[in-house]
Design brief:
60s Ribosomal Protein L30, Chain: A, four-stranded mixed sheet, 57% helix, 2 domains, 9% strand, elongated, alpha+beta, 4 strands
Length: 231
């Protein structure tokens, strides 16, 4: 037996359609199936116009709400990951060997491996701080042999950037080398940052070899030896 639906319900559905409401919204409002609502409104004059109104309203009002909901969902997910990660890290026993391994892997990824002094390069202050902290913890270094060189763009304030890196790395500005200014068009669009590119240099080839070979030995211990063909 078919359900009896009052005429006023059908009229309400048509009225809502004229206001630009979607089929789904109307179905939720009058408590009937979407297919039923469609049957009621499809014969209306200017139905295509009302459908377009609904689409435009969705773009104007509903779509931004969906994007905001997705943003909040992502923020909640990231916060959950951060909380879980911090709990896990706080329970770790990070000894000297682990820190040495972290330093070696960090340098293997971002440091200069060719002959010469130890040079670590990055734009991320967090990585630079981690590297210098691990270096000081794992090896006895002569602080006077540390050098910093900055590569800056036209928009960087050299005095402020130097002060920032000096405080972050605990290296006096007197140990900073001459700043290199990168030539780049002011009209060209690119991502800006505050600190430019930071080159941390320690004039000790033997220490660089120690760290590089520690990373190579650690990688081989974990994965086995790998034959790399000569180009």
């Amino acid at each position: 037996m078919r359900r009896y639906i009052p005429e006023r319900t059908k009229q309400r559905a048509r009225t809502l359609r004229r206001q630009g409401r979607s089929i789904g919204q109307i179905a939720n409002d009058v408590l009937v199936a979407k297919s039923t609502v469609y049957e009621w409104v499809r014969s209306m004059s200017n139905e295509r116009k009302y459908a377009l109104m609904g689409r435009q309203k969705w773009i104007r009002e509903i779509q931004p709400l969906g994007a905001l909901a997705q943003k909040r969902k992502r923020e909640e997910k990231i916060q959950k990951i951060v909380t879980e990660t911090k709990q896990e890290i706080n329970s770790l026993d990070i000894g000297s060997t682990t820190k040495k391994a972290m330093l070696a892997m960090l340098y293997w990824s971002e440091g200069c491996k060719g002959r010469g002094p130890l040079v670590f390069v990055n734009t991320d202050p967090r990585r630079m701080k981690l590297f210098i902290t691990l270096l000081r913890h794992c090896y006895h270094i002569d602080e006077c042999r540390l050098r910093v060189r900055l590569h800056l763009h036209w928009y960087h304030n050299e005095a402020k950037v130097k002060k920032f890196w000096s405080a972050l790395l605990s290296i006096p500005e007197t140990q900073f080398m001459k700043t290199y200014r990168k030539d780049r068009s002011k009209e060209k669009t690119f991502r800006r940052n505050f600190g430019g590119i930071c080159f941390l240099r320690y004039n000790n080839d033997y220490l660089r070899e120690q760290i590089v070979h520690f990373s190579l030995a650690l990688g081989e211990h974990l994965t086995g030896s790998i034959h790399v063909p000569v180009a």
